[in-house]
Structure prediction request, 179 residues.
Amino acid sequence: MDSFEINKIIAAILMVALLVVGLGKLSETIFYVKKPEIPGYGIQVENASIDSSNEEAAIEEKIDIVALMSMGDIATGEKIFKKCAACHSIIKGGENKIGPALYNVVGRKVGGIEDYKYSKALIEYNKEWTFEELNGFLTKPAGYIKGTKMSYAGLKNEEDRASVIKYLNQNSDAPIPLP
Prediction:
């Protein structure tokens, strides 16, 4: 192959590159599209003043605790609690583990064990563990009390929650009468 043929090959490659770039610039000129200042679409929301915490509170108020508690049973609660036993003790006089001991938890003040280091959110919560509070908390702990250290995803099944609450209530010196 002589130098003349090499020059033709290089010229062909350069012409193709120039043609591609030139066509791109030409098409941008012919088909000009004005870009928006802010990318995306504006969405108007009606009733934007609804607060998500108010929605959660309204949902929690609608739960019929009597009907919920009638779903569960203590034996099932004991089985389900085995997941919790990795972090919590349920026996009388049991030690705190990663989480606080849960013997006598129903009716106790939230964050009420003196020798356990609770998250700031639980200390400031200032309520008692009622059936309703336990139901809300066990649904999704981090969503119910923002800032809690408990990383458990929660019990979505209502029957499972009711069973665990009944089991927790039974493990007490003075179980609270069921609603």
In short: The helical segments are 3-30, 52-62, 65-71, 74-84, 120-125, 131-139, 141-144, 158-170.
